[in-house]
Design goal:
CATH superfamily of the largest domain: Enolpyruvate transferase domain
Structural class: alpha/beta
CATH topology of the largest domain: UDP-n-acetylglucosamine1-carboxyvinyl-transferase, Chain
Number of domains: 2
Strand order of the largest sheet: 2-15-17-16
Strand content: 15-25%
Number of strands: 23
Shape: globular
Radius of gyration: 21 Å
CATH class of the largest domain: Alpha Beta
């Protein structure tokens, strides 16, 4: 459908079972494919981004059957392929590195927005160790053409201040060299919790990476081996919408699938909710939130929770004063320029917004009813702004189907707790 009207709601309460984490799902799919042995994967996200990854891996010679991934035990056996990867950064970036080390001829492309998302830092790092990669379009951006090359390096340097996915891509691919290697980060490494997810999943597949702070990563001479069975926990970024609904709509709202034992950084969105005055209860595999009245304004560095920070931007509409979200420069190179997009839609709703290179300052005002929110083909724009209906005004979400990227049933799940 072209748009979806969400009716005014005053209350949110109930329980939501989360779909699997996109970040973990695509890492698990790739490492299970490169590993020796079969891996049974449970809890895997079934959405656009994971389907894109599965289709690409199938084209590269990986077999899937009965919930299991049959690993190829090293580099991909198919040496020539054209892969269409949509707008899935968690597929295109890691596959670029893995294919550069696979000794074949590959073309990687995506939707127009993916061709606007930078990949130059990763390509430069791979070229520096012998990879042969050409840009098929604009310099520094996909689509890419990868040629066979001999890679022989013990030290790889990469910038860390544009996207942590470049670091993740190198870390996951370098064990294919079957030798000790070191990844050295130039500049500040952003979104560190996402690199933590990478290290955690690599450890499950038998490769233990040692790190010196966040500057240097040492990868042993070890190949991936199937753990036999692996469980994908719920998506912590998706949890943020329902937890925020609990803060806005009184609650209690309980999400199941993430909690104290989660390996995802976005569970720390609970810290934002607590600072805004909500009551939060965390269990090993569940989180529950209750609203305690008017939300308090915040001024926070959100570099560690870039996806969940979008939910905080919408919550700022309901705060008792101006809020500032800082250190969110990575929003500029996501599915859309999220700083510009968020600022534009918040203004439509009546807020005063100051937009900086890496921050948003949001001053709330009386919500305008019936606003049509543009979503920019960005699932998190659609899900974040759906919360506006809990302010007691109707809101229209344009292109609601974009949530299929990570959470196809999102609006049904929201309706189940909103009244």
């Amino acid at each position: 459908m072209d748009s979806l009207e969400l009716k005014p709601a005053r209350r949110a309460a109930g329980t939501v079972r989360l779909p699997g984490s996109k970040s973990i799902s695509n890492r698990v799919l790739l490492l299970a494919s490169l590993a020796a042995g079969e891996t049974e994967v449970t809890g895997l996200l079934d959405a656009d981004d994971t389907r894109v990854m599965r289709d690409a891996l199938s084209a590269l010679g990986v077999r899937f059957h009965a919930g299991k991934v049959v690993g190829v035990g090293g580099v991909f056996p198919v040496k020539q392929a054209e892969l269409s990867l949509g707008n899935a950064g968690t597929a295109l970036r890691p596959l670029t590195a893995a294919l550069a080390l696979s000794g074949g001829e590959y073309r990687l492309a995506g939707v127009p927005r993916m061709h606007e998302r930078p990949i130059g830092d990763l390509v430069d790092a791979l070229r520096a160790i012998g990879a042969r990669i050409d840009y098929a379009g604009k310099e520094g951006f996909p689509p890419l053409v990868i040629h066979p090359a001999k890679i022989n390096a013990s030290l790889v340097k990469v910038r860390g201040d544009v996207s942590s996915q470049f670091v993740t891509a190198l870390l996951m691919a370098l064990p294919l060299l079957r030798k000790e290697t070191t990844v050295e980060i130039a500049g500040e490494l952003i979104s560190k919790p996402y690199v933590e997810i990478t290290l955690n999943v690599m450890r499950r597949f038998g490769v233990e990476v040692a790190r010196d702070g966040w500057r240097t990563f040492h990868i042993p001479s070890a190949m991936y081996k199937s753990p036999g069975r692996i469980f994908v926990e719920g998506d912590a970024s998706s949890a943020s919408y329902f937890l925020a609904a609990g803060a806005l709509g009184g609650g209690p709202v309980r999400v199941e699938g993430v909690g104290r034992s989660s390996i995802q950084g976005d569970v720390r969105f609970t810290e934002v909710l607590e600072k805004m005055g909500a009551e939060v209860s965390i269990e090993d595999n569940a989180i529950e939130v209750r609203g305690k009245g008017k939300l308090r304004a915040i001024d926070m560095d959100m570099n560690h929770i870039p996806d969940a920070a979008m939910t905080a931007a919408v919550l700022a509409l309901f705060a008792d004063g101006p809020s500032t979200l800082r250190n969110i420069g990575s929003w500029r190179v996501k599915e859309t320029d999220r700083i510009a997009a968020m600022a534009a839609e918040l203004r439509k709703l009546g807020a005063m917004v100051e937009e900086g290179r890496d921050f948003l300052a949001i001053t709330p005002a009386t919500l305008k009813p019936g606003v049509a929110v543009d979503t920019y083909d960005d699932h998190r724009m659609a899900m974040s702004f759906s919360l506006v209906c809990l302010g007691g005004v109707p809101v229209r979400i344009n292109d609601p189907g974009c949530v299929a990227k990570t959470f196809p049933d999102y609006f049904d799940a929201l309706a189940s707790i909103a009244a």
